[in-house]
Amino acid sequence: MTWWDAIVLGLVQGLTEFLPISSSAHLRVVGPLLLDGTDPGAAFTAVIQIGTELAVLLFFRHDIARILGAWWRALVGRDGSDARARLGAHSADARLGWWVIIGTLPIVILGVALKDVIETSLRNLYLTATVLALFALVLGAADRWGAKRRELTELRGRDAVLLGIAQAAALIPGVSRSGGTISMGLFLGLTREAAARYSFLLAIPAVLGSGAYELVTSYGDLSAPGGPGLVNTLVAAAVAFVVGYFVIVWFLRLISHHSFWPFVVYRLGFSAVIFALLGAGVVAAT
Q: Is residue 7 part of a domain?
């Protein structure tokens, strides 16, 4: 991998991570087109996602500080010493902190249990293209029929579990972490902006944890001859951070006034492009 490849892949990551179009699918396709037909790998993808999550931390820093503060005050009993108070009965922000923790559990459990499958079989481009199209229809249905009335303060424990399961589906390239959680949020009646904001917050522990884990366990693969290279990986992550921040700003403004249907159409088109590239032999499925 050259530094130019790293910049392009970081740009792709930053542009697609927060949109419901699957950043992992884009990296899975663009990587082989740049890198002589080779897949940059799940470890490279996980590590450069740290860059985009740092953009989330920067953009939502005030919200995160408020939620963490409220969660801690509730946990140590400052809102009351009974179990309900410690679990956020008297604070919407404290409850949101618990909902993020609960919603993170499914992707952690499945990510560890299915690690080998995620890094091999699930990266088949035929599967990626199919999933892109199927979840485009899911997103379209959610945007069309979701009530879009509830705010984050109205989330319940059941919602957190369902949103966590939806996020875990993004272990399959093509689903999209934001697309899965936003779709579920819309089906649960959340407004478009509330669904997107929760999607961003929910991704923080999962993505940072996954990136750190891959960096530690796959350091040798990243730095080995023929691998992406540690410096190139860090360059891609830095580019993803800068681009990702501006995408968050743009995306939240967009969905406050418009529907998700342009992304539905894009996903269907991108799926068709992948099938065309596979059929023409331009990229390999595995």
A: yes
Quickly state the pLDDT bin for 230 (edges 50, 70, 90).
Answer: confident
Please report which confidence band the pLDDT of residue 225 belongs to, taking 50, 70 and 90 as the band edges.
confident
Tell me the whole-structure pTM to 2 decimals. Answer: 0.91
C-alpha of 9 from chain center: 16
Tell me the three state secondary structure of residue 77. Answer: coil
The DSSP line for 141-207 is HHHHH----B-GGG--HHHHHHHHHHHHGGGSTTS-HHHHHHHHHHHTTB-HHHHHHHHHHHHHHHH
**Residue 119 lies in domain:** 3-55+100-279
Cα 216 from chain centroid (whole Å): 20
Whole-number Å distance between alpha carbons of 56 and 68: 15
86 domain-assigned? no
How many domains does the chain divide into?
Answer: 1
Residue 117 belongs to some domain of the structure: yes
